[in-house]
Amino acid sequence: MNKLLAPILAIAAVVLAVASPASAQSSGDRVASAVTACTDYGSGCWGGPTTSVIQDSGWASPSLEWGIVGDSITYRCAAPIRSAFASRGLSVAIRAHAGQNIEGSLDWYQTLTYKPSKTFFYIGTNDVFNPYAVPAGITRAKSLAAAGGSDVFWGDTYVGRSAWLLSDIRNSGQVNGYIRAQIPDSHVADFVSALTAAHGRGVDAEATYLADGVHYKSLAVNGTDIGCNFMVATMMATVDANS
Questions:
Q1: How do residues 165-182 score in pLDDT, each as one tens digit?
Q2: What is the 3-state secondary structure (H, E, C) of 91-146?
Q3: Which of 37, 149, 159, 160 has the fewest Cβ atoms surrounding its Cβ within 10 A?
């Protein structure tokens, strides 16, 4: 792990940046549409969503317990997520669109006939390109969920690509500050603190669990689910406390 990572992770767990946010391409998948110009907040331009989408049929059920709205991180870790919910006897449906931001994810969520009892939004990684749009996105998510009788949960985000490390950390910290401002702590899965705690145990968290400073190592992409299993354990701690 970069020797700077531990203090940076600690800062990212609490920071609400006041400087310009970061732009980090969180998806390693092929980009279907590219942005040729943008306001660069420190990490480049958002490339837009990819063509990689998972959408489980369970979203059509009026009795769905948990729905997970995610991006490429959820896309890569979908199998371990499903296994974790199944082992607890909980119904779950995943909708993961690689490269998608909060706004695009909510455009889809708004079309649902039924909302699950609980919606876990694990989106925001692609919003480090423009963190200033995040507060309105979270407000919209809460409104859409409330209208459908769904309780809202959120996962915080860590982006730390080596080429944009400081900007990525600053901007993901800003995104997380906005999440914390609107979502109760009991409803937030704290992935950043989990990474920090792993480092405190002497584990090289970035090298061990992350493939590229963003995505958790997955069986399909990296030949091991060690990163996904780590992420899912953190997610399920929040699920278990609220099921």
A1: 999 999 999 999 999 999
A2: CEEEEEECCCCHHHHHHHHCCCCCCCCEEEEECCHHHHHCHHHHHHHHHHHHHHHH
A3: 37
